[in-house]
Amino acid sequence: MSDLQLEIKHLIIEALGLEDMEAADIGADLPLFGEGLGLDSVDALELGLAIQKRFGIKIDAEAKDTREHFANVASLAAFVAARQSA
Amino acid sequence: MSWIGLDCLLLNPDASRPVTPDLDHAELCQRALRLAGQLRGQNVQRVALYLEDAADLAIALLGAWLAGVQVLLPADAQAQTRLQLASRIDLWLDALDPAEAAEPLAARALDLDRCRLTLCTSGSSGEAKLIDKSLRQLSNEVEALERLWGETLGDAVIVASVAAQHIYGLLFRVLWPLCAGRAFLRHAQPFPEDMQRISLEQPAFAWVASPALLKRMGDNLDWTALQPLRQVFSSGGALPTEAAQLLHAQLGQWPTEIYGSSETGGIAWRRGDTPWQPFAGVKLGVNAEGALRLTSPYLPAGHCEQTADAVELQADGRFVLRGRLDRIVKLEEKRISLPMLEQALMAHHWVSDARLGVLQQGRAFLGALLALSPAGVHALRNQGRRSITDTLRRHLAGHCEAIALPRRWRLLSQLPYSSQGKLAQAAVEALLAAPRPTQVEPLSAVQRDGEWQLELQVPLDLAHFSGHFPQTPVLPGVVQIDWAQQLARQLIEQLPPRFVGMEVLKFQQLVRPGDPLQLSLRFDASRGKLYFTFRNGDKACSSGRILLGPAQ
User: Fold this and answer.
1) Interface ipTM > 0.85
2) Given an 8 Å threshold on Cβ–Cβ distance, is B363 in contact with A46?
3) In this structure, are B518 and B460 located in the same domain?
4) Is 0.90 topped by the overall pTM?
5) Calpha distance B495→B525 (Å, rounded)
6) Nearest by CB to A20, which of B361, B362, B389?
7) Chain B 358-397, CB below 8 Å of chain A: which residues?
8) Which range marks the domain in which residue B142 is found?
9) Contact indicator for B304, B263 with CB cutoff of 8 Å
10) Which among B359, B402, B408 has the least Cβ separation from residue A38?
């Protein structure tokens, strides 16, 4: 597991107030929304803001694949890494 | 025993009629007439009464009404309350002078419509709400109570655990017995042991109590000795079924629960887990949301009071309560009924009581304050906290949208209701917002022969349990040592400030969530050693010596 993935897991727990969760409970490919972690659309908004703030990146308002970036921790880490190096 | 209407209590003083075991009706009348004279002499128009002695309250009420003074009963005597009420009153009376020598007013019947009483209630918003009543409303209610239960009570002395400043205590432990010629005790007894002790000094007795008392009866009451208890009343909040069942099992009778409010007075009653029976003359209906509304002889004539309590009316005129409707919150534009979710949580056998609150932390979400049942405590001890919260989340998932699933949980052995059986929403939310505990509050601490003995209960929700260990929570040894040292510093003066080391440390028995612990602490000043032992009943859990030294 990369440091970035771990950092994102901690960010999810912290930003969404999931105090009973630990990073180890969130698998890199566990779906964040719906079944899986069970986050909802408001969490998606909160998480989007937290990610942009923490990593100093912007989610492209035009891009249609934002949903896919937020599918799980692995995709989110790949998205952040790509944006940071862009 | 003979009934005297509330309006006629000052006529025909009768020295053979008891008011309290140490005060008769003739003396009550005499003191009320003198107080009336004093209030008239001082030209008092509006008085606030805050009298913990129920006999003094009776004297003051009758005296004030006779003198044509409007009476206000504040809910508490805090400086803030006094300040808020200052513009509404001329006099704040919190003690009576038994030797008051003012010229008495002449006795006469009280005017049931002109004599007024204002009650104060905290209200759900926290701001004090004033409720105005006429003597006629109160009179109608005590007469109805006597018709229902006067015969059962007979000459029972009324022993109460609730204050007389609120409508329930005022009616049940002061005005009703006063009119009936039934003696009542002056002071409220908040503890079950005191209720028992004082009751057993009376040949026959009845209790005016609240859920706060009845669900904490403990296991050291002498139920056999309490058999002469003629009737137990409970009001102020919902009485848990288990508490009613315990009384039924031990006394062979159900407590009489009264459902009502400061605004409405009594609405209905029940004995045992049955639908509620409205009082005679109370007419019920529901609004579009299903909330009860009513007209009643205890309300101003023609007034229809809308409550926020959801009810299900039955064909036979009785009804079932379905929780409050005013505790509906909006989370991200979705309306969520907290009572509905609380009931769903309480339907799980691990949960004995539940209150939900809203937390704002980035987004708004719900937190759940739970009192665990014995089965819930067992599950917590053997499966860990995550298993409890995951299971309850899944249990709730069938009742609500994902957004309403609580994200924060606080597990307690019981919820912190006030002595009036209330738990303010703000208090729930403050408890949910606070971090999980790391320390323990002693239940008691006594010193004997230079040694301190403390009773502790290990908090169910101790923060240390999450990592130690997730599936089998065990109190870490280092925390036991820390507690021993922290508690010793609160109790023993001039303990050397510096931790130097440990000696003969022994851990013999695991300590788990909810365990009762007895901690002994002794400080040997000449050697600088703090001796501690944690026991759970007859089993030693841990012991050792903490070496303490002067600051460096």
Assistant:
1) no
2) yes
3) yes
4) no
5) 8
6) B389
7) 359, 361-363, 365, 385-386, 389-390
8) 6-274
9) no
10) B402
